[in-house]
Amino acid sequence: MARPRSEDKRNAILTAATRVFAEQGLAAPTAKIAREAGVAEGTLFTYFANKDELLNQLYLELKYEMRDVMSAGLSRVDEADLRELTHRFWIAYIDWGVAHPHKRKVMTTLMLSDRVSEASRAAGASAFAVFNARMNHSVEQGLLCGPSPSFVGALLGAIGEVTMDFVAREPGQAERYREAGFEAFWKAISA
Asked: pTM value?
């Protein structure tokens, strides 16, 4: 009879995969990930059938973590105040990326990888469905410009990456860069 899977081991594998993929890229061997996680390589494949499943699960874990972090505190914002809602979302996104450089690097790499399935991409996008619906509605009402929520999301990612780089490089200027980045983003999307 097979032993039940441990959530701790699964999480250790995902944590190790994040670190190894950030350092060596997606071509890094699963044996290295297993060693970093403190498990046998066969154990890794007990939790993830193959490397692509590991990559897809890691993509989703990072997307869900980002959603949870970026959504925290949004319920305290007046839904009518789109600028404040977007600002809080922005600050959480920047702070997450700066606090977790390995996760940020791996997420950026996974978003460009053809090894992430369309089903995983759809599930990752649905994690942000409420925010995307709000953005789409705001575009339709003429409150925001942009052809689609995915375009707005791409702008958020691009300006956010530059902002995170500067905040990480000059932490004493973090507030200044976060606000300047937000202003640039807001000007790019507001009507």
From this structure: 0.88
